[in-house]
C-alpha cells in the first residue's frame, strides 16, 4: 500500500471509531482492517492506536500521523489542482449532515441532482436534529441554522430564513388575533421542546422595542413537523421557519400573527472544517448548493420586497 492510501485508510478508521465500523464502511472484514493497520504500524515501526475489545485511542505518534497526514493529503490535492489547471475531478466519499425536516425537503432533492452531475462523488447523508461535531465525527459538510462560533469551521450562508408566528384561520376565528406579544399569554401556543433553558420563550422586536414572552399551550413537541400539523389543525399559534410554512401562508391555510413584530432569524448556513485547501469534492458541493439556493438569499435578489416570501 502507498503512503497516501494508508493515510486515507487511517483517517477513515479513526473517524469510524472502531475496527468493525471501519470494516463495514470499507466493505471488508474486521480482521482485514486489523491486518492492514498492523502492516502500517510495522512499516512505520510505531504503534498508532491503543486498542482494547471496547475502545481505541490515538497514541501520540498516531495523533501526529493523523494531523500531519491530513495536511499532506490536502497539499497534494492542491498541487495536483495547480498543475492540472484546476481540473481535478471531485471524487471520493463526502459525508453530509442536515436536520431532519430541512434535510428531507430541501437537501435531499438537491443531492439527487448533485449525484448526476458528480458521479465520482459518493454522498453519505446523515439526517438528525441533534448537534453534530463535524471535526470529531468526520463530517465534510453540514447544513445548520444560524452561524456557529467555532473557529475550526467555515460558514457560508446558503439561504435567508425568517421565522413566522402563524395560526390556522379556524383558530383565529375562535380565539381572536393577538395585538401584542403580551397577548400571547391568553392564547394556546404550540411549542418546540428543543432546550429546557429556552423552552417556551419567544423573543420579539419592533423598531427599538424588544419583548420576551413565556408561552404555553396544551401541545408541545420536539418535532417541527408535528408542531406544524397541530397548527394546521387549529390547535394554536406556532413559531416556524419560512422554509417550512411559506406554502401554507401563500395558500391561506395559515395566517401570519403579530406582523408588526419580528422574531430572530434562523438563516441557513453550510458549515465545513476550516482548511487551507478545500478538497475538490467539498468545494464542488459548496458551489453547487450556493447556486441551487441563490434565489433564497435576499442580498442576491433585485427589485424584490423584503416582505416577499422566499420559499
Describe this structure as you would to a colleague.
- By secondary structure, the protein is of the alpha/beta class.
- It has three domains: 3-83, Arc Repressor Mutant, subunit A; 92-160 and 267-300, D-Maltodextrin-Binding Protein, domain 2 (3-Layer(aba) Sandwich), CATH 3.40.190; 163-256, 3-Layer(aba) Sandwich (D-Maltodextrin-Binding Protein, domain 2).
- The protein is 39% helix and 22% strand.
- It contains ten helices and 14 strands.
- The protein has helices at residues 3-16, 19-26, 30-44, 60-83, 100-117, 134-137, 169-175, 224-232, 242-251, 280-292, and strands at 49-51, 56-58, 92-98, 121-127, 141-145, 153-159, 163-167, 189-192, 201-206, 209-214, 220-221, 237-241, 255-256, 268-273.
- The chain has a five-stranded mixed β-sheet, covered by helices on one side. A five-stranded mixed β-sheet has the order 11-8-12-7-13. Strands 1-2 form a two-stranded antiparallel ribbon.
- The chain is elongated.
- 26% of the residues are buried.
User: In the residues, how many domains can be counted?
Assistant: 3
Helix content: 25-40%
* Helical stretch tally: 10
Number of strands: 14
- The CATH topology of the largest domain is given as D-Maltodextrin-Binding Protein, domain 2
User: Rounded to an integer, what's the Rg over CA atoms?
Assistant: 24 Å
Low-pLDDT segments: 300-304
Encode the helix/strand succession as letters. HHHEEHEHEHEEEHEEEEHEHEEH
Mean pLDDT: 84
The CATH architecture of the largest domain would be 3-Layer(aba) Sandwich
CATH superfamily of the largest domain: Periplasmic binding protein-like II
Spatially, the strands of the biggest sheet line up as 4-3-5-14-6
Approximately how much beta-strand content do the residues carry?
Answer: 15-25%
State the CATH class of the largest domain.
Alpha Beta
- Globular, elongated, flat, extended or rod-shaped: what is the shape? elongated
Which class of secondary structure composition applies to the elements?
Answer: alpha/beta
| Largest sheet, strands/sense/barrel | 5 strands, mixed
| Cα separation of the termini | 50 Å
